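Running log. JK asked me to keep both predictions on one page so they can be read side by side. First protein, sequence followed by its tokens:
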Amino acid sequence: MKTQEATETTTRVGHSGYGMRQGGEPLGKGSDRYIPSLGYPWLTSLYDPLIGLTMRDTSFKRRLVRQASIQGGQRVLDLGCGTATLTLLIKRMHPEAEVVGLDGDPRAIRIAQAKMAKARLSVALNLGMAFDLPYPDGSFDHVLSSLVFHHLTRMDKERTFQEVSRVLRPGGGLHI
């Protein structure tokens, strides 16, 4: 199996420690405030071991990737990629696809970058919010998301679905 060279990625963080909007405006008020998946930033490093002990995440994530029917050359967004477990799986199962991960937690993105470097895979990892995607219209063939939507408020879920619809190409699909 041919190994791809790891790509260094950059993330943008606003002055408050939250992500930045597409125009460069910092996030940080109201529903834009990012809350880490385990509730506290210091628990982020424990996310992978805890999920591994409490869920069969590899099993359902493999089914999710198979369901997407990703083809060679397609662009795929892992929305709310966290520490990039699903992102890595997508790239390993479909090395010919261009895979992008997006998450609002800078700590999770740093863990994801380390995992990508260790796996020697080339994947772009971006800091941003699901309801304010930093990508042009029609950028992706597939958007996959796992263990994310239950963290969003109703309003942010609606905004996220609008954003996903915007960045999907005609005929593209959202897989949750």
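And the second, directly underneath as requested:
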Amino acid sequence: MEPPKPERPNSPSCGRRKPRTRKAARCATPARPPTTPPSKPSPPAIPTPSPRRSPSASCARPDTAPRQALLGDGAPWIWNFADEHFPDAVQIVDIFHAKSHLFEVAKAIYGSASEVGEQWAKQRREELDAGRVDDVIGALRSHDETCEGARKDAVYFSTNRERMNYPKFRAMGLCVATGVVEGGCKHIVGTRLKRGGMR
């Protein structure tokens, strides 16, 4: 049997290190940790207004006033609103609105150009200023069979009798007409918002 032949010195595999493959180099690189997107901050919670509290009443803070008064034209929904949101407020019917009822009834009874009707309305107005609401109601009821407006206004004044005690309200220093508030809204709010370029 012949002995093995010695490896040649000039053989390419003699004395050389086997190079690493690309796959091995990739495996040696450490894996990067996965990046997570930053979390968005949650929006602030919006407070829910109380269902039993009027937004306008909350802004004006009438509960801090030592005395409260609410004026209206006599519509039932106004007094329902007052009983719910301002139970301690003094309720007053706007005196000029009440007087306008008397003028309209006088026209319906005596005609629009009657001097007797003007005198009748003037007398009722003086009774209203003096707090004699029962006299006004009696004068209206004397015409309720011939005038539908007189019958309706008799009910109107009877329902709001306690809200028409104008001598008492004036003695308390309360306003008995809404003209001051309406004028303020017209000159302050209206002038501010109705000019050119206002928002």
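Observation for JK regarding the second prediction: The longest helix spans residues 95-110.
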